[in-house]
Amino acid sequence: MEEMRSIHSVMPYSGASSAMGNSHDHATRSELGRRIARLCNAEFLEAGRNGFGGAAATGAGLFWIPNDVLTREEAAELGISRADQLFGGVVPRPFVGTKIVSHGLLADNAAAPPGWAHGLAARLADAVLRGFSVFSAADARAAGRLLLAHGPIRLKDVKGTAGKGQTVVATGAELDRAIADIPPPDLAGHGLVIEQNLEDVVTYSVGTVSLFGQTIAYWGTQRLTLDNHGEVAYGGSQLHCVRGGFAALKRQLLAPELAEAVDKAARYDRALFDAYPGLFASRRNYDVALGRDGQGRQRIGVLEQSWRAGGASGAEMLAFEAFAAQPDRAAITCATVEVYGDVDAAPPEAALYYSGVDPVVGPLSKYAVEL
């Protein structure tokens, strides 16, 4: 494969948002880089404090693993102009990489950042849950009250990850208090997602990853666990992977709810990439929720996108390794697992991504395994 032959070095990159990761995140991304380097017979370069390896380098032959989506300007500095140069994605404007793009505005003349794709909401309407994206307290209060007529709602910090930064409210008074707690500059600068709340939720992971001319697609489910502080945290993902993209995934014999989740993820993906020229990504992962709304009706909708290395990436990599070792293999089921409180939880056959005591989260094991 020409793409594989042209890569001589793989390295992680921590940009402006490097503070978002704990040491286990950085270690996990490094292990992912080592495995990608082995897959394409390239050298792995550990990132330095400035985000580069031993020496600053850009241009052809480098394959990057950023800690977050890159802006167009960050990508240009690294010499990235195509999806096959990184494990992740590049956005034309910073807000495009957040969950704020999942919903439309309260009104056409509502506050929004420059470059907002006003026509996108119509294309996403039946692929997402009922909700709004807002950039002012007045719009937040108005949008929230419209949605409260149908049941409890969820306020979501657009920069939050792993379910953090979210608040469920059921009354106008609770809504007003929650909005009052948001600093106006944060609301105006980053926005707020207000969305119908679901109960009895199952969260599917649906996505595609392309590496060196090969593509896999998958559906899976996420598992929650308790962290070392007794709080709910991400505990891993189980993925069912096939060769090919969304079309290959749709050809699988899927249960009706799962087939709907896959279809909505594919339509969300297509709509976003059509709406924002200059957006490109090698990893295109989508969280899709299945649950009951305030009236007890079943709802399925895309929650958000992830165009960067994520919690399921160890399983994605395991699929690429298996398909490379067994060219005739068509599918694989694998999982990532995160175990708090135990640094030796990984079984011998697992691909170990982290084992140690993180300074922030404490004892933790992270691994991927074929099921």
TrEMBL record:
Descriptive protein name: Biotin carboxylase
Pfam entry (one): DUF3182
Classification lineage: Bacteria, Pseudomonadati, Pseudomonadota, Alphaproteobacteria, Sphingomonadales
SUPFAM superfamilies for this protein: Glutathione synthetase ATP-binding domain-like (SSF56059)
